[in-house]
Each structure stands twice: as C-alpha cells, then as structure tokens.
Amino acid sequence: MSDASSPAPVTAPDMLELAALLCSRVCHDLISPVGAIVNGLEVLDDDPKPEDREFALDLIRKSAKTASARLQFCRLAFGAAGSSGAQIDLGDAQTMARGHIEDGKCAITWNLPRLLLPKNRVKLLLNMLVVAQHTIPRGGMLTIDPIGEGETMSFRITATGHNARLPQNIAELLSGERGPAADAHAIQPYYTRLLAQACGLTVTLKPEGEAIIVTAS
Q1: 16-56 pLDDT per residue, tens
Q2: Would you give the DSSP letter of residue 137?
Q3: What is the DSSP letter of 153?
C-alpha cells in the first residue's frame, strides 16, 4: 500500500517547455521598463505642459536605459552568448551585472579577477547573482568572491541586507529536491542548477549569521 504523504516525483520540463519558461522570464524582466516607455510616449502625444513634457522625457530616458541593461544581462545569463565552447570576459560580465542589479537599493562588491572563463561558468555566476538578489528584497550588498582560480574557478556570493531571507522553495529548486513549477520565477533557479551541473558543480543556498550565502562548488 502506497504512502499517501510521499512527495510527488520531480518532473523536469522538456526542452520546449524550458525554452518557453525562460522566454517568459525575460519578458517578465522587460515588461516594466518597456511599459514605462510607452506611458511616457503617450504623455508626449497629449501635447503636455513643459514640465509634464520634461517628466515624460526623463521617464523615457531612464526606462530605455533600464531596458537596454536588462536585455544585455539576459542575453548573457539566459541566451547563447557566443558559440559552443566560447569564453567570456569577467570584466564584461561585471559591467552587465552592475547595469542590471545596481539600482540604488542593491550594490555589488566584485572581488573576481579579470580573466576569460568558459561561457557556462559565467552564465552560472550571473544566475547565482539573480538568486542572491532575491534573498534581499529590500536591497543590500552582494559580495562576489572566487573559489579557486583559473578556468575551474567557482563562486561564493554573500547577500547582506535588511531582512535577508531564504525565498520559499528556491533552495530545493537549486538542489533538485523540488521540480520547477510552470512559471517564470521557478525556472530561473532550476536553470541555475542545470548550468551548475554542466560545469560539474553544485549550487547551495543557506543562511550564515545574518547573511545568505550562494555557493557553487
């Protein structure tokens, strides 16, 4: 007789579903700044007063900059970003990470050397940053330190901030104890686990004092 309380088996999405969910994730990240650009253009179309016109232009400038930064980040974190086996400059990754994450509430301390790393290892780092950012919803600091050196370097990210916490189910999604739900939020940590596996690594998420630590080792 089966145990009714046993957890359901983890079911991985097929390739088509994985691609669709990652596309949904990218669209989710872009909808806000693109929508703000549309709103600003609508204000301009209404022949506004000079002060309203300047407000609309400022909104469009800031939103276009945000949308561009998010597109560049998503292209590297979720996209092909070069041919199979390509290497990516950690300096470029740092620029994209800062453009996407640093918003006045969240800042990055980047302690990694500038060197070329295999593409999947850099993609893993950027996805770990997204995971770490979710642990400090009110903002704070993400400190990135290397583990090891050279092409086999892995990463440790320390998230500190007011009310740092473990988001529900993300640790299980990273470890493989829980399968991804059919939404764009759950697919990102699941994708992070796939990248770690491709690099021969495991990603863990755990509290350490008042900080939350994301480690690939």
Answers
A1: 877 888 788 888 888 888 999 999 999 888 877 888 888 89
A2: T
A3: -
Contact 33, 63 (CB under 8 A): yes
**Tens digit of each residue's pLDDT (9 = 90 or more) over 163-176:** 888 887 888 888 77
- Beta strands (DSSP E) in 61-113 are 87-89, 106-110
Could you give the residue ranges of the DSSP H alpha helices within 142-183? 170-175
Q: Measure the CA–CA gap between 154 and 152, rounded to whole angstroms.
A: 6
Task: State the maximum Cα–Cα separation within the chain, in Å, rounded to a whole number.
Answer: 75
Collapsing DSSP to helix, strand or coil, 121 comes out as helix
φ, ψ for residue 84, nearest 5 deg: -60, 130
Query: Which two structure tokens, joined as six digits, stand for 97?
Result: 């990470």
CA distance 204 to 194: 13
